[in-house]
Design goal:
The chain contains 9 helices and 8 strands. The strands form 3 sheets. The protein has a 4-stranded mixed sheet. A two-stranded antiparallel sheet has the order 3-4. Strand 3 and strand 4 form a beta hairpin. The radius of gyration is 19 Å and the shape is globular. It binds zinc ion (ZN). The site of zinc ion (ZN) has 3 residues, from loops.
Amino acid sequence: MTDLVRPFPPVNFLDQAKADLESGLDPAVELIPAPEVLSWVKRTFLKIGSPLYNPEHEHISLLVESIEEDKGFLTFAWASAPAKNKNSLVLGQCERVAFRAGGWQKARQEQQMREWFGFTPTYLITLDASFCETATDREFCALVDHELCHIGVERDEDGEMITSNVTGLPKHRLVNHDVEEFFDTVRRWGANSDTKRLANIANTAPFVPDTEVERGCGAVVIK
Ligand SMILES: [Zn+2]
């Protein structure tokens, strides 16, 4: 075993949700902090030379290393069931933490963050534990990498990261998906440039080989 073993939701965390489902009930969603996921993300996706290192996340790495001590830039939580969003089920969510309330409401929400993590993070990624428990390593890594992609960075015309004059740290922002489209629109009207680009990428072999996924998830002992 290595320190790269992929994080799993705690044993028993899903018991209630499973019991509810078996009784035909909609499970009441429970949430718990999952700082261990950030530790694993740092060792796999964010560290240069690590198995699943993604240079697209360089700014996250800089911010996590610089801000973690006192405040916390990013952290994770497990949810016991997917979030229902109209007609779809959401397996992961990346949010820029903001309290749309004041007074005691805000104080209560900040207190929860403090009790969970010791600080209010700038970004919080929540993962559906019921999916992650049985997902393949590849599915799990793809979900985490996807959520990290929502934390973007401002870039200049040359593609260079823009940093803050005050802190010297990258200027980050929550970003949306590269492509949002309906199958029917593409069927009827053809693909636009973004959809074509996505189709081209989807038709090439994935960049991350299975061996690296195994290494990143601790399935292979590294000597
Ligand atoms: Zn997304």
